Amino acid sequence: MSILGTRVVRTEDPRLLTVGGTYVDDLREPALAQAARVTFVRSPIAHALITGIDVSAAREAPGVVAVLTAADLDDLPPPPPDSGLTGTEGLPFPLGGAWSEPLFAVDRVRFVGEPVAMVITDDRYQGEDAAELVSVDYEQLPAVVGVAGALAGESLLFPSAGSNVAVATGTPADSAAFEACDVVVEHVITNQRLAPVPLEGRAAAAQWADGKLTLWVSTQNAQIARFILVGALGLDPANIRVVAPDVGGGFGAKIGVDRDGLLVAWAAKHIGRALRWAETRSENMLAMTHGRAQRQVVKIGGTREGRILAYRLDLVQDTGAYSRMGGFLPFLTCLMAAGPYDIGHVETAYQVVVTNATPISAYRGAGRPEATAAIERAVDLFAAEIGVDAAEVRRINLVPADKFPYTSGSGATYDTGEYVAGLDKVLAGAGYAELRAEQARRRERGDVLQLGIGVASYVEITAADADGGETARLIVHDDGTATVYTGSSAHGQGHHTAWAMLVQAELGIDMSKVTVIHGDTDLIPMGVGTYASRSLQLGGVAVHKAAVEVKEQGRKVAAEMLEASEADLELDVDRGVWQVRGDPATSTSWAQVAAHAGDAGLAADVNYTEGKPTFPFGTHLAVTEVDTETGKARLIRHVTVDDAGTVLSPVLAEGQRHGGIAQGVAQALLEEMVYDAEGNPVTGTLVDYAIITATELPSFELLASETPATINPLGAKGIGEAGTIGATPATQNSVIDAVSHLGIRHIDMPLTPARVWAAISEARESR
Amino acid sequence: MKVTVTVNGGEVAAEVADRTLLVHLLRDVAGLTATNVGCDTSSCGACTVLLDGRSVKSCTLLAAQADGRQVTTVEGLSDGSGDLHPVQQAFRAEHGLQCGFCTPGMVMASVSLLAENPSPTEDDVRSALEGNLCRCTGYHNIVRAVLAAASERRPS
């Protein structure tokens, strides 16, 4: 029996559980033995001109090696040309030119937390002391706060750009499509700004020796980090080695390397001493990119029976002070705007605006949770307006199974799906009818604790950059072991286990004999890394294809050794031996085959490009209890189908779903990065920013569903972001549903007790 | 100042700055890097260790406060035979960790919980781990692991 699809425990864990991982700050390499510590001096003001920097007192402080500012950046090439890693409909990503992001702030700071100077000291405590002695003179400017502030245009972040609107595009409104509808509902929805908060913040260590830069960095993509370094430092790629050691979570916010990490690399070369940097959590909350931050206007229309005929999404993306992902995130939101529904007329439009806040970039889901949140709220608003059950409205409008491949009204071509079956499975698994009956009883009794049932169906896009591909190199050694070099880069997902399973499944080499190596550009020069739920369907398929290639090499060698024709040979995958068909006694092992292959060896290099993304789908159902006296909402059940094609490892896939659900529920109920009117962050620590804890969550009820992808041989789609995409609107819908009998139709996230209580109070007063 | 702390059964004696945090003594002086720092407000629990058998957040104690006392980190949890401690074993069996950064603290908090309450309910586990944040697992499998470790340890 194949090991694929079975419950295999992770190979990564014994080390992580006994001696701990080796994260950047744990590195004890000889090269870093004398490393000095980097402490950043960051802007305490959201928007200001820098009129002077005095580092003289800091330079005299104990243990100070150097104090560096923008004035020291005299050994760098001019900024790279505008076009970034990839383009989307002609939109550069990130935006360059007038919107460029410097390394240290030059003349102007644009968000609280922006790096202004760097103090280098012998030890970390000295750095904290010396950083306080750097004196920066600021001439404060009016802060641009939020979407409304940006659109008002009274203060500009980039005066030479002449506007705070960096991108504006979309389809014009067609009123006729909505005039044909019985019912049209329109609503403004906020998809709030979130902090990713991987438990390990950003960290880097750098050494410049013998003309070569080595950067150890907490990243999802060593190779992309090197690409960015090449542009920023003007070094030959051959003279840069980037290593991603263990990485303590990323969630999209550790793609490549940030300006802070680039500065650490530059400074190590500039002063000729190895350096270490690990940010504090308070720095992380301000200076690691944030996610989401869209203001959306939804307009939905259809028949009184529940058929949706027209949908429009207008959104404004607050991209923060610098547009790291250009128009890409709202582009993805608009591409996925129609969700899993068969809607005849769909319009989308978006603007990207800069504000005096931390830059926005990918955060688990990256544009798709925002799309799903918008349409799932819109569907509930529509259902409430026509008085039809929200689950039934979904069933009426989900793309039927016989319509695939299906091109949505917003332009994405969904590959495979069983959307209605997924919805029905969740409703049955949750006991939907009984939940509605219990809700009715509580309403009838006027209970303080009201029950809410929220449903969200979704389709998402994974490996959106499928044409970027992924690499794998597989070698079978003459001791019967194998080594996989993967361009994909794990930070908790369990690639080492999954890739070893793929090798065992194809070659019969036990996974305990398979070593997986990732995240070192000297060993793996080409690769893309981990984001966009791309790893298995690109990196995993690359490993699979390499194994298939090595198997064919092995067949040739074994045929020669056993003096049989290739056609007569078979690989016994259970034993990992080649044998003559019908004559198991005539056999040879992988060790012998590899030894016989000699210098030619058994090795394959694959750069697998999928060409098209895949579209996982599912339905989430959240049950909440809302205390109508305090507004406190508590999630008591969460039932899901997340269909991401054929499952390679149920253990890993479930883990991805669990984590995503928790983050999704957290957005719905708790988390928000809040700024005051001057652009000061007021949720800058984990005391103020409410990361969800174990006490606020139930155990989750996961239902299995596998509709294979047809584009790749593993049948795999991505699973990493399903949770945030489905759970957020399901939870939000459930809380609103709990109080909908009071006439409440919408409450913005996060659904904190204060907000829910205010909505209840307002509803009761207006009755 | 001079501090002497028994860490995982061995003596760690060092001259440190007065303000040195216990977690930095463990990481930078004792060279035990499993214990991580995940925040600066005592919120996340990644730095949880046992001090005289009870869980503490080592980023919130001075090394001086541990002078003359016993500290256990995750490195000192298994008996050295190569076998995992039942809590470590359960975290592995139940997939109670992903990136691993919160794991040493989470494991030590769980060990402390089971020492105080050998037969916790799911609610007991969730409440005991409220001071330990995990961003990867949604806590689902961590809770299962702690419950599994508890039933493993309970005499049948």
Write up this protein.
The complex is a heterodimer of chains A (767) and B (156). Chain A is α+β, with helices and mostly antiparallel strands and 767 residues long. Chain A is 29% helix and 24% strand. Chain A has 19 helices and 28 strands. In chain A, the strands form seven sheets. Chain A has a seven-stranded mixed sheet with strand order 3-5-1-12-9-10-11, with helices on both faces. In chain A, strands 7-15-14-13-8 form a five-stranded mixed sheet. In chain A, helix 17 packs across helix 18 (722-738). The longest helix of chain A is centred in the C-terminal third of the chain and has 28 residues, at 535-562. Chain B is an alpha+beta fold and 156 residues long. Chain B has two domains: 2-76, Beta-grasp domain (Ubiquitin-like (UB roll)), CATH 3.10.20.30; 86-153, [2Fe-2S]-binding domain (DNA polymerase, domain 1, Orthogonal Bundle), CATH 1.10.150.120. In chain B, 33% of the residues lie in helices and 15% in strands. Chain B has five helices and five strands. In chain B, a hairpin with a 2-residue loop joins strand 1 and strand 2. In chain B, helix 2 (86-93) packs across helix 5. The longest helix of chain B has 14 residues, at 103-116. Chain B is globular, with a radius of gyration of 15 Å. Chain B starts with a strand and ends with a helix. Chains A and B meet through helix 1 and helix 17 of A and helix 2, helix 3, helix 4 and helix 5 of B.
